[in-house]
Every structure is written in C-alpha cells, then in structure tokens.
Amino acid sequence: MSELLNKLEWRYACKKMDPTKVVPQEKVDRIVEAARLAPTSSGLQPFEVFVVTNPAVREQIKPKAWGQGQVTDGSHLLVFAAWDNYTADRINMMFDLTNAQRGGTNEGWENYRQMLLNNYPARDEQVNFEHAARQAYIGLGASLIAAAFEEVDATPMEGFDPKAVDEILGLRARGLRSVVIVPLGYRASEGDWLANLKKVRRPRETFVTEVK
Ligand SMILES: Cc1cc2nc3c(=O)[nH]c(=O)nc-3n(C[C@H](O)[C@H](O)[C@H](O)COP(=O)(O)O)c2cc1C
User: Fold this and answer.
1) Which terminus has fewer CB within 10 Å in the chain: N or C?
2) Ligand 1 centroid distance, CA of 155 (Å)
3) Using a 6 Å cutoff on CB, does residue 180 contact ligand 1?
4) Domain edges within the chain
5) Which among 68, 59, 79 is positioned nearest to 159, based on CA atoms?
6) Which value, to the nearest 10 degrees, does the dihedral of the CA atoms of residues 127, 121, 139, 21 take?
C-alpha cells in the first residue's frame, strides 16, 4: 500500500507535458479499464470514456479548454462523458446485461429494477445528469490513481467549455455530456511552474475525524 501512496505523492496536476513522449497503449488501456471497473450507484455505469488521440480534434478542443497545452502536448486525451438523463431503456439495458452475464435473475433484483424505473426517469433531467456526472467522477478518480500507478502524468481538467467539447465530439447526439477531461502524457523536463513545488494538503488532524 505504501508503494501506491508513494506514487500518489509523486503524481501532480502536470502543467507542461513533453510533446515528444507517447504513453504506451497498454498503459492507456489499464488507465481506462480502472474507470470501467469503478463502482457506480446501482451499478448503472452512467458514463463513457472517449480516448482522443486525433491531433486535429485535440487542436480543436485546446482553445475550448483555456488553451491548456497538455491537451495537445499529452499523447492521449480522456473525455469523461455522462448520460444526459436516466431513461427506462438505459436502466433496462444494465439490468438485462447483468441478468445475461449472471445467467438468471431473482425477485429482489427485479423489484430493485422496478424501483429505479419508477423513480429515475420521472426526475428532472438536470438532476439525473448531475447524478450521472457524480458517477463519472468516481471513474475519474480511479483513472487518476491508475495513471499514478503506471507512472503516467494525468491532469484532471474542469477548465473547459463542456458545450463546445460536446459539439466537437458529437456527444449530445449520443445522449452524453462531457464532464471532465484528462490529458495523459509525461511531464516536460522544464517549463512547469508546479513541478518543483511542494504538494500541499490539509494536515490529517483537520481532515480526518475519528468517531470511536
Ligand atoms: C475535477 C478537477 C478539475 C481540475 N481542473 C483543472 C484544470 O482545468 N486545469 C488544471 O491545470 N488543473 C486542474 N485540476 C487540478 C487541481 O488544481 C489539482 O489537482 C489540485 O490543485 C491538487 O494538486 P495536485 O493534483 O498537483 O496534487 C483539477 C482537478 C480536479 C480534481
């Protein structure tokens, strides 16, 4: 465990990536797999991950992301995109998939499906999107930890215009909305103001309350 914590100390929100370095595909695959394996509320997995390598597409996204250079200097750009709403079709898709993979169902499980069908689709679309977006952030966290484990630099970014990114990637037509983006790459040897600054976190005493 301390090995993982050492790597979490090592990771930082890299500001300048070396454009000549490419993250090996197997590492990218494991970083994305960590998001796919992340837990989600009711197991609905209401988000998808886009892995953007196309240089022209990343050039288009960069100005919509405050001109942040990592978008094009990294070798891969992950886009976490959440479901725009919970629909009966989407809920049924996940329950049917579960039944197919587990080879059967049971009454409790089907009652749970019905409870979600009775509640989620009737809720406000924005409430549902925000719930889905929270699940995407769990995937984000898993991928950030996996990237650190792989010693790949990853910069989580909310600093972008989601509507513009949705447009560039055609997300709305697929019932998705971008939530957070993550360039993957390797830190540049110079030119990053953050690289040599101490990692700052609140001390444990003000962060953890033990209720014994
Ligand atoms: C959801 C989220 C959004 C963020 N958006 C940006 C961003 O747009 N640009 C950026 O340079 N850093 C961004 N950050 C990085 C944070 O500023 C950084 O993680 C935080 O200051 C802690 O520093 P560290 O990650 O270097 O340890 C974001 C982090 C998270 C988790």
Assistant:
1) C
2) 7
3) yes
4) 2-85+124-207, 87-122
5) 68
6) -90
Place of tokens 């587990």: 102
- Gap from CA of 87 to ligand 1 centroid (Å): 32
For the domain with range 2-85+124-207, which CATH number is right: 3.10.580.10, 3.40.109.10, 3.40.50.2300, 3.40.50.300? 3.40.109.10
Tokens standing for residue 211: 């209720």
Token couple for 51: 């892995």
Ligand 1: which residue has its CA nearest to atom 18?
Answer: 13
Instruction: Please tell me if the CB atom of residue 67 comes closer than 6 angstroms to any atom of ligand 1.
Output: no
- Token couple for 151: 């010693």
Mutate to test the pocket of ligand 1, among 61, 155, 180, 199 (most ligand atoms within 8 A of CB): 155
What are the pLDDT tens digits along the chain (212 aa)? 799 999 999 999 999 999 999 999 999 999 999 999 999 999 999 999 999 999 999 999 999 999 999 999 999 999 999 999 999 999 999 999 999 999 999 999 999 999 999 999 999 999 999 999 999 999 999 999 999 999 999 999 999 999 999 999 999 999 999 999 999 999 999 999 988 899 999 999 999 999 99
